Amino acid sequence: MSEPKAYVRIPVAVLLLAAGLAATARAGDAPEVVAAKKACDAQQFAECHRLAEWYRDGYPVKEDTKKAIALFGKACDGGHLPSCRALGTLYTNVLTRDAAKAGALMQKACDGGDADACYDVAEYPSRYAVTPDRVGGFFEKACDAGKLIACYNGGLAYRQHDERAKAVALYDKGCNKGDAASCYNGGTLLAQGGAGMTKDGPRAAAMLQKACDAPVAANGDKDFAKLPPTACYNLGVLLQNGDLVPQDLKRAHVLYDRACTAKLDEGCRALADVQVMERNPVEAKNGVTGGMNFILVKACDEGEAYTCRTLAEQYEAGSDGLPKNLTRATELYKKANALNKAHCDKGGKDAPMACMELSRAYEGGHGVVKSATQAAVLAKKAAAMSQTQCDQGVMDECVYVGLAYQWGNGMPKDKAKAAALYKKACDAGAQSGCTQAEQLTKEP
Q: What does the pLDDT look like over 318-364, one tens digit per residue?
């Protein structure tokens, strides 16, 4: 007696599908359709997928969404991930909408390594019943499966939920695959820190350097064209400040120059600033790279004597955020004195003030040997210059002459002459004259 044949139960849906395909074939299917059906019957799931696409699109067979769904389902059950994705997409259509089914199918495809399925869910989470907090995870899977843009977009998604460490991890993956935007965003986040993530200067600098070195897009993308020079600028800021990485003004100079050459305004301004720091290494070492102190350093560097003296006073006292440094104070006093002497000797509009500043330097022994005699000579010269300009109609200089008479500094002490000069200036519309006249009347 022969062995009985094994009985295999075939699902009714599959039998109906096979019967339908056979009937269609008998009706005169095109040769490629006949071949695809035979291959699909032989469990060649890529052919089932191709056949499903034809029924979905209506060529070279009549459109039939139900048959497309059945064929995509058969291929998906057989492990053909693109079919799972295609079927999931079908369930987002108006006539077949089922977000839960669509989501389950896309999840299956994504878990199997289909980058496009992961990315599609992340891009359109509501279509697949996926909550916003899960979006970053789908982008991450797409990134790991080789979809480069998913690394960047996943970083954005994690950043939106303030999961900075996860964002940086994805940006790092994208950066290592050559995505300049990921390098830029990751480097910027590492420099900022926050949300439980510690700042990491060396990693930030490395990522920003990659973004800085990225070639300009061949398609002339204007937005991307700004990215490399902006990355160069941000890296320059890190190197100039020297708080997260060792300070390197020369390298910052080069980076700012690159940014400026690319017509980034911030780069041009920063280039001018770092050149000031290069000429003033003590201030650079003390971290004077911003704020009022930097403004003073810059003005002094550009030849403004008054600001040089102000900085000298700060170093002498160890005030306004600057450490006490008598050597640097003396250097700055000497620079201020040299600038004032040049203006005083030259004459002209600013000469009276320059002579008076130099007089005060001799009076206090700031950057010069203390000399009351020299101080008096310079005060007298300053008062005489102010008188000449006062006679020429410069009312502010009339006020200065008045002060010289009021205090006997360069002129004989004479309050009556001081009062007359203040009145003259006040009557001519100089507010400083009015103020000094009022104060003079309050003195005993």
A: 998 899 999 999 999 999 999 999 999 999 888 999 999 999 999 99
What stretches of 351-430 show up as alpha helix (H) in DSSP?
351-364, 372-391, 395-407, 415-427
289 with 299: CB under 8 angstroms?
A: no
pLDDT digits (tens, 9 = 90+) for 258-286: 999 999 999 999 999 999 999 999 998 88
Res 221: pLDDT: 60
AA letter at 123: E
Per-residue tokens: 401: 């002459």
Superfamily grouping for domain 11-130? Tetratricopeptide repeat domain (1.25.40.10)
Which amino acid belongs to residue 327? T
- pTM above the 0.90 mark? no
Spatial separation of the C-alpha atoms in residues 173 and 274, rounded to whole Å? 33
| Sign of the C-alpha dihedral computed for residues 216, 218, 220 and 223 taken in this order | negative
Q: Quote the tokens at residue 151.
A: 């690394």
The token pair at 212 is 């800085």
- Answer whether 47's CB lies under 8 Å from 36's CB: yes
Closest CA to 437 of 384, 399, 386, 405: 399
- Higher-confidence residue of 440 and 105: namely 105
DSSP string, 76-94: HHTT-HHHHHHHHHHTTST
| Phi/psi-derived region of residue 429, left when phi > 0, alpha when psi is between -120 and 50, beta in every other case | left
C-alpha–C-alpha distance, residues 361 and 64, integer Å: 97
Average pLDDT over residues 80-91: 91
| Residues 392-425 pLDDT 10s | 999 999 999 999 898 988 899 999 998 999 899 9
Instruction: Tell whether the model's pLDDT for residue 16 goes beyond 90.
Output: no
> Which residues have C-beta within 8 Å of that of residue 42, sequence separation ≥ 6?
none
Structure tokens at 131: 């909550």
Nearest to 87, CA basis, from 109, 69, 67, 112: 69
If DSSP codes are grouped into helix, strand and coil, which group holds residue 428? coil
Q: What long-range pairs does 133-139 form, CB within 8 A, spacing at least 24?
A: 133/161, 136/161, 136/163, 136/166, 136/170, 138/110, 139/170
What's the CA gap between 395 and 429, in Å, rounded? 8
Q: Work out whether the CA dihedral 269, 272, 274, 280 comes out positive or negative.
A: negative
Per-residue pLDDT tens digits for 47-78: 999 999 998 998 899 989 889 999 999 999 99
